[in-house]
Amino acid sequence: MKFKLFVLSVSTIGLFFMSAVHADPIEKTSDVISIPKAMQILEKGGYYDFRKIKVVREYNEIEVDALNKDGHRVEIEMDLYTGDIMQEQLD
After folding, report:
1. Is 18 helix (H, G, I), strand (E, B) or coil?
2. Among 15, 31, 52, 80, which is most buried by a count of CB atoms within 10 Å?
3. Which domains does the chain have, with CATH numbers?
C-alpha cells in the first residue's frame, strides 16, 4: 500500500514538473519608453496638440497624431525603444 502511494505521489509530482516545462515563456519587458516620455520628446521637437497616441508593439513603434511647429496636422511614427522619429507625414 505504501509503495502504491509513493508511486502515485511521484507520478503526480512528475506531471506537475512536466507541465511547468511546457509553460509559455515569460515575456521580459524591455526598456520601452513611456507615453509621457514620448510626449516629452515630441514637445521638445516642437509638436503639440496630441490627438491620438497608439503603441503598436508589432512594429515596435508609437503612432501619434499631433500638430507640428508649422501648425499642420501630422502623423508621427516613433521608435518604441529609442523615441527616435522614424516617419512624419501630413494627416
Report:
1. helix
2. 80
3. 35-90 (3.10.450)
Predicted confidence at residue 75, as pLDDT, reads 98
* The 73-79 sheet, strands edge to edge: 48-56, 61-67, 73-79, 85-90
Choose among 44, 53, 55, 56: nearest CA to 75.
53
Give the up-direction half-sphere exposure of residue 66: CA atoms within 13 A in the CB hemisphere: 25
Ranges assigned E (strand) in the chain: 48-56, 61-67, 73-79, 85-90
Reference 75, options 87, 57, 60, 59; nearest CA is 87
Phi-psi region of 83 (alpha: psi -120 to 50; beta: other; left: phi over 0): left
Query: Distance (Å, rounded) from C-alpha 90 to C-alpha 6?
Result: 71
Q: What's the pLDDT at 58?
A: 94
Give 60-76 as a DSSP string.
TEEEEEEE-TTS-EEEE
